[in-house]
Amino acid sequence: MEQALKPIGTRLVVNRRGSTVWDVRTTAGRYAVKVGRPVPETDEHPGQDWTGVAPAREAAILQSLQAFSVYGTWEYGTWNVQPWHAGTDLYELWKPHRSGEIGIAFDLTPALACATKIASLHDSGWVHGDIQPAHCIVGADNTAAIIDLALAQGGLLPNTLEFPYPGCLVHYESPEISRSILETGTAVPTTASDVYAFGASLFISATGWRHVEYPDDAPRAVQRKAVATVPHRPVTIPGMFGKLVEAMLSPVPGDRPTSHEVCSILACAIDAAG
Ligand SMILES: Nc1ncnc2c1ncn2[C@@H]1O[C@H](COP(=O)(O)OP(=O)(O)O)[C@@H](O)[C@H]1O
Ligand SMILES: [Mg+2]
Fold it and tell me: Structure pTM?
């Protein structure tokens, strides 16, 4: 721990309302340091307190999954330290495909690596609840990490770390989650809503399109109304991969493949391409 407290390089990764993340190199290793605080109310957005608790909650979940993490409190909220996962997120990784720079078939290996991690999270009894391309990190050797477990649901946590599930980024939210958030202010994420979110992540990473069409600057409730009521964009990705994404985006949760089925189909598509 003493080594971990001696940073030899610190880089600010994100600093947004409610959350700041640093990439910290120490002689003992590379860590992500996350600091959370409540988001105050503005004219456009209601405030939210959960962002203050999120780092501690995530660390407790990492610990229950036997991953290293430490956490604590500071004046305005909580913080955590966790291992840094070097790599590139799925959206960045598939940029050459989106811009048409390379005309070759998709390399689905990174998608399978991410799907495998999601399936093993599901096997351990947890639902991620916030799957998005930025949370799917793929390393140089095609090992994946699914990060940001702050909203995961599954195991028992201390009461002080709990808050109602607030939904995820609407660009990846399944219709049933959007509907429930609009009606009740919260929702119960499921393995099926994770599969939907991963499907929407694959779709946007492969094509640049959001799963459902709504104006960029629409308020969140309007975005959610669209997700809850408007059919998703047609999936124009060809072949087995396109069929898979289409099934993952099914409006009926029970019609979606499980995360293990997603792995099997991606493995099949990789075999067929190879
Ligand atoms: N353990 C980690 N390894 C690598 N990158 C990370 C890690 N944790 C966070 N990051 C980077 O910081 C960004 C924000 O972190 P995230 O965990 O999503 O927090 P939040 O959404 O609360 O800001 C991620 O998109 C990623 O780029
Ligand atoms: Mg995040």
Answer: 0.96
Going from the Cα of 168 to the center of ligand 2, the distance in angstroms, rounded, reads: 9
10-residue mean pLDDT series, the chain (274 residues): 68 95 94 96 86 98 96 97 97 87 75 98 98 97 96 96 96 98 98 98 96 92 96 93 97 98 97 85
Residue nearest to atom 10 of ligand 1 (CA): 32
Hey, what are 155's tokens? 């195991």
For the CA of 79, the nearest ligand: 1
- Please name each of the domains of the chain with its CATH number: 7-83 (3.30.200), 88-273 (1.10.510.10)
Collapsing DSSP states into helix, strand and coil, what is residue 218?
Answer: coil
- Partners of residue 30 on adjacent β-strands: 25
Ligand nearest to the CA of 32: 1
CA diameter of the chain: 55
